[in-house]
What we know:
Elements: H1 2-14, H2 21-26, H3 28-34, H4 46-49, E1 87-90, E2 97-102, E3 118-125, E4 133-141, E5 148-153, E6 161-168, E7 171-172, E8 176-179, E9 190-196, H5 207-213, E10 219-222, H6 247-258, H7 261-267, E11 272-274, H8 293-309, E12 328-332, E13 336-340, H9 372-383, E14 389-394, H10 417-430, E15 435-439, E16 445-451, E17 461-467, H11 479-489, E18 493-497, E19 502-509, E20 512-520, E21 530-538, E22 546-547
Parallel strand pairs: 9-10, 10-11, 13-14, 14-15, 15-17
Antiparallel strand pairs: 1-2, 2-5, 3-4, 3-6, 6-7, 6-8, 9-19, 12-13, 16-17, 16-18, 19-20, 20-21, 21-22
The chain binds fe (iii) ion and calcium ion.
Residues 225, 277-279, 441 line the site of calcium ion (CA).
Amino acid sequence: MGAESLLDRFMPRCQTTAPSRRQLLGSAAGVLALGCGGAGKTGTDSADTGAPADPAGTCGPDAPTPQGDPSTAAESPFDSNPFGLGVASGDPRHDRVIIWTRLVVEATDVAQSPPAPADVVWELATDSAFDNIVQQGMFTTTPERAHAVHVDVDGLESATTYWYRFRCGDHDSPVGRTRTLPCDDARPESVRIGFAVCQNWMAGFYAAYRHMAEQQLDLVVHLGDYIYEAGETGAVRDHGAPECTTLDDYRNRHGLYRSDADLQAAHGSAPWALIWDDHEVDNNHAGAHLDSPDLAQRRAAAYQAWLEHMPVREALTADPSEGIVVHGVLDFGRLARVLLLDGRQHRDAQPCGGGIGASCDEVDDERSFLGDEQDAFVDDVVGNNPADWVLVANPVVMLPLDLGGAFLNPDQWDGYPRARDRFLAAVAAGAEGRTVLYTGDIHAGGAGVVPSTPDDYTSAPGVAELVVPPISSRFTDPVADTLGPLLSQQEHIAWWDWTVNGWAEAEVREDAVVTTMYSVTDVTDPASAVTVLKRWTVAPGALMPTES
Ligand code: FE
Ligand code: CA
C-alpha cells in the first residue's frame, strides 16, 4: 500500500521512466538521489541483502516501442461516431497491455462500414481525467480487419492502473480502465479476479456485467461461449440473423453482443484474458476433427472474427486459417499463476457419438483434449511454477459427473478420461494442493474437488473446481430437476445449482482462495439486482471448498 501511494505521487512527474518500486522502497534518500531519470531493473535482490522479500518485485519498464505519430492522422472515413462497440483491454503483462476498439457504422452490419483505412489516435494516462498522459500513438486500421484496433502498449509500470481512450476524426471513444500485472518476483497481498462465462444473448440480459463493472477488478477471465452461433429467436432477446457460417456473419454476431452497454462497461473496467468454448464456432466444436473443407473455412472465419473482437496480443500476428494460440499464462507475481486452457481447437471428436448419456468402450481410448503442444505447455507452466496458487481457466467441467453411467457428457473431460489423468498428473507433479479450476460451459453454479483418481470418489482431492454461474445462459433440460440434487449428494461435490445466473469473483491470498458467487435475481431484467449467493473458501492442501 505504501509503495502504491508513493508511486502514485511520483508517477505524474516521472511518467514511464520512473524508477522501479524496489528503488522507491529502498529509502527516501534513494528516491531523491535517483530523481526522474532512474532506470528500472537495477534493484538489488533480497537474496543478496538478506532483506525481506519485496512485495512489489524488482522489474522495471523498458523504453516504450515507438508508435504511430498522432499528428499525421488522416481525416476519418466514418461520418458518424464509430465507437458503438466501446473499448476493451487485455492480455496484460507486467510492462504492457493490449488496448482495443473497433470502428463501426452499424454494430450488426459490417457491410455498412466504409471500404477505406482509418487512422485512430490513442492515449494512455495515469488518471481518468487524462491530466497525465504517459503515452499516445496512432494505429491505422483497415476494412480487412473489420476496422478493429489492437495496440500493444508497452514500457508500462507494473501493478499499475491506467486509463485509455481513442479518437477518430472528431469523435472520442469512451474511457477504459486497465491494469498491468505485478513483477514476476512480486508478492502482492491479494488479487481480485472476475470470472464470466456463457452469455447467450437470447436467454437474458447482462445485469451480471453491470455489477462486475462496478468492482474495479485486477483481471476478468472469460471462460467461453462469448457468442452463440445459432440463429433462432430467443426467450428474452433475438439474434435477428441466421446461424453464423461466414466471416461477416460472425463479425455481425460479435458486433451484436458487443453493442450491449453492460458488456461494454465490464470490458472498460479491467483488463480481460479470454479462452473460448464451442459456441464461438459451433455447438460441440472439436477443432482437431475437421471432416470437410466447409468446416475448415467456417472455423477460420469464426477464429478471425474472435481475434478481431478480443483484446488479445495474438490478433496482431495470427493467421486464423492456420489455427491460433488461445492457451497461455498470466502471473500475479509469486501469489497466483493463471493458466488459460484451450479445450476446443486441438481436441479429437467426442466419443460414443457425443450424445449426453452415451457410454461405450471408446471413452477409455487415448484421445487428445488439449493437443500435444498444449500438453507440453501445461507440463512446463504447472511443473515449474513458484506461485502459491495455480488458477486454471477451464472451459468444460472436469468433475466426474457420470453417476455410475447414468449421466455422462462426453463433451466434458468425462469424455476424455486419459487426457484428464494426464492433466492431474501434471498438477500432482508441480502444484499439488494449490490448484483451483474455474469452469464454464454447463450453465450451472457448482463447487467440489476432482478426485486424484477420478474413478474413485474417495481418493485424495486432485484439484478444486468452482463451476462459474453463466452470465445469462440457462440449462433448461427437464433432466436438471432430478440431476441437480443427485449431483449435490456426491461426496466430491459440495454444491450444484442449475438455476443460477451470475458471475464469480476470486480473491486470492497466500492463505486461501475465496470465491464469491454472485447471483442475478432476474435475468430477463437488465436492471436486475445482483446479490451474493455463496462464498467458498479453498485452503492450501485441503482443496474441498468450504462455505463461509
Ligand atoms: Fe454455454
Ligand atoms: Ca459450451
